[in-house]
C-alpha cells in the first residue's frame, strides 16, 4: 500500500465525525484555506475551512450547553540574559456556568534554573470583557488585543508581569484541516492555531526585568466540553523542516481518539493517526497539591509518518495549575528527540494534560 493511501485511511479514521456532521470531505493532504494570518501564497484548491482567524479570535455567542466554553491561550519559548523561559497565558469562559465562569492564568518556568510560578484569577462577569468578532480582552490584570497579524498582551501579578508583542510568521493551522473535529464521544469542537508567532517584549519575575525574544504557539478553541471526558493530552511540536504538529489524545466514556494535525510550511496538511499515548508513558509524578498523577515522559509513534519521538518534561515536573474544583492540570514545558519522517529531529514544546494517570 502506498504512503498516500495509508495516510488517507488514517484521516478517515480520525476525522469521520467531522465529515459526517458537517459534510466536508477530508483527504490526506489538503491545502489550507486563505486566512489573515497566512504569509504564504493563498491556496487555489482544497477543502474549505470552517474557522476564520480574522473573526474567530473574538468571543462567540454561547450555545445552550452548560459546559459551553470559549478559550484562547499561548505558550512561548523565549530567551533572555543567557536563560530560557517557558510562558503560558490562558483565559477561558464558561458563560452558562453559575460560578468560576470567567478565569485567566499565567505561568512562568525558568528552564535554566527550574524555578516555576503560576497565577490564577477568577473574574466577576461585570469585570470581564471579550468582544465578539475581534480580539479585545480586558480583565483585572490582563489585557489582550490585536488581530491575526499582530497582538499585544499585558499581564500583571503580585510576583511578576509580562508585556509582549506577537506576530505570526506562517499560515494558520486548522485542526483536522477544517477547524472542526470530534473531541470525544461525538461532541464537536472548533479549534485553530497560529503556531509560529514571533514574540518579543519584557518579562518581570520577582523584581527582575528581562528583555525576551522567542516564539509562541497560540491556540483558539470553543464549543461544548463533553461531560463524559475522562482525560486528555495535547502537545504542540515544531519540526526543524517547518512542519507544525498538534497531537490530541482523548479518552471519553465511550470513545478514545489519538491523532495529529500536521501543517506544512506551504499551508497543506496531513491528518494522521497516532498510537494511543498510554502505551508509551513513564516516570509518573504525583502532585503534592492535588494528589493527581501525570506521566512526565512519552514515547510518541506516528506510523504513517515513520516517526517515533521521545518527549519529556523540562525544568521540573511541578508545573501544575490548580482549578477551582480542587483539581488541576499540567501545563509543562517539554523537549523532544527522535525520528520524524525518518530523519533525526529535536526541539521544544508544551504538554497539556488533564485527568488521572495512575494507570
Low-confidence stretches: 1-45
Query: What structural class results from the helix and strand content?
Result: mainly beta
CATH superfamily: AttH-like domain
Shape, principal axes of CA atoms: globular
What is the H-and-E element order? HHEEEEEEEEEEEEEEEEEEEEEEE
Average per-residue pLDDT, rounded, comes to: 88
Amount of helix: under 10%
Largest sheet: 13 strands, antiparallel
Q: Do you know the CATH architecture?
A: Beta Barrel
Query: How much of the polypeptide forms β-strand, as a percent range?
Result: over 45%
Level-1 CATH class name? Mainly Beta
- How many discrete structural domains? 1
Distance between the termini: 36 Å
Annotated CATH topology: AttH-like fold
Number of distinct helices: 2
Rg over alpha carbons:
19 Å
What is this structure, in a nutshell?
Helices cover 7% and strands 53% of the residues. Strand 19 and strand 20 form a beta hairpin.
Could you explain how this protein is built, in words?
By secondary structure, this protein is mainly beta. The protein has a single domain (about 5-355), classed as AttH-like fold. It has helices at about 5-20, 55; strands at about 70-80, 85-95, 100-110, 115-120, 130, 135-140, 140-145, 150-155, 160-170, 175, 180-185, 185-205, 210-225, 230-240, 245-250, 255-265, 270-275, 280-285, 295-300, 305-315, 320, 330-340, 345-355. The strands form two sheets. Strands 1, 2, 3, 4, 5, 6, 7, 8, 9, 10, 11, 12 and 13 form a 13-stranded antiparallel β-sheet that branches. Strands 14, 15, 16, 17, 18, 19, 20, 21, 22 and 23 form a ten-stranded antiparallel β-sheet that branches. The chain starts with a helix and ends in a 5-residue tail after the last strand. Residues about 1-45 have low confidence and may be disordered.
Amino acid at each position: 500500500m502506498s504512503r498516500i493511501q495509508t495516510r488517507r485511511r488514517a484521516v478517515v479514521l480520525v476525522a469521520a465525525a467531522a465529515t459526517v456532521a458537517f459534510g466536508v470531505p477530508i483527504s490526506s493532504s489538503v491545502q489550507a484555506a486563505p486566512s489573515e494570518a497566512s504569509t504564504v501564497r493563498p491556496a487555489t484548491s482544497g477543502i474549505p475551512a470552517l474557522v476564520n482567524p480574522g473573526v474567530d479570535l473574538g468571543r462567540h455567542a454561547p450555545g445552550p450547553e452548560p459546559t459551553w466554553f470559549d478559550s484562547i491561550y499561548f505558550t512561548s519559548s523565549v530567551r533572555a540574559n543567557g536563560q530560557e523561559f517557558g510562558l503560558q497565558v490562558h483565559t477561558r469562559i464558561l458563560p452558562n456556568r453559575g460560578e468560576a465562569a470567567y478565569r485567566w492564568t499565567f505561568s512562568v518556568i525558568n528552564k535554566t534554573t527550574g524555578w516555576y510560578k503560576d497565577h490564577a484569577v477568577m473574574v466577576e462577569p461585570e469585570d470581564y470583557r471579550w468582544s465578539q468578532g475581534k480580539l479585545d480582552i480586558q480583565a483585572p490584570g490582563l489585557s489582550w488585543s490585536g488581530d491575526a497579524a499582530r497582538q499585544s498582551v499585558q499581564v500583571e501579578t503580585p510576583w511578576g508581569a509580562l508585556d509582549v508583542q506577537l506576530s505570526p510568521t506562517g499560515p494558520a493551522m486548522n485542526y483536522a484541516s477544517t477547524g472542526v473535529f470530534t473531541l470525544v464521544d461525538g461532541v464537536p469542537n472548533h479549534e485553530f492555531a497560529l503556531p509560529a508567532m514571533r514574540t518579543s517584549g519584557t518579562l518581570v519575575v520577582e523584581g527582575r526585568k528581562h528583555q525576551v525574544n522567542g516564539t509562541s504557539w497560540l491556540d483558539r478553541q470553543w464549543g461544548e466540553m463533553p461531560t463524559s471526558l475522562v482525560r486528555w493530552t495535547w502537545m504542540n511540536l515544531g519540526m526543524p523542516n517547518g512542519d507544525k504538529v498538534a497531537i490530541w489524545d482523548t479518552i471519553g466514556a465511550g470513545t478514545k481518539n489519538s491523532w495529529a494535525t500536521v501543517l506544512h510550511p506551504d499551508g497543506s496538511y496531513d491528518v494522521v493517526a497516532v498510537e494511543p499515548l498510554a502505551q508509551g508513558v513513564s516516570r509518573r509524578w504525583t502532585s503534592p497539591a492535588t494528589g493527581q498523577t501525570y506521566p512526565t515522559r512519552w514515547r510518541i509513534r506516528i506510523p504513517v509518518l515513520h516517526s517515533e519521538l521521545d518527549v519529556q518534561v523540562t525544568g521540573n515536573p511541578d508545573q501544575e495549575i490548580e482549578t477551582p474544583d480542587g483539581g488541576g492540570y499540567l501545563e509543562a514545558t517539554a523537549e523532544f528527540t527522535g525520528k520524524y519522517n525518518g530523519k533525526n529531529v529535536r526541539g521544544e514544546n508544551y504538554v497539556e494534560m488533564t485527568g488521572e494517570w495512575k494507570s
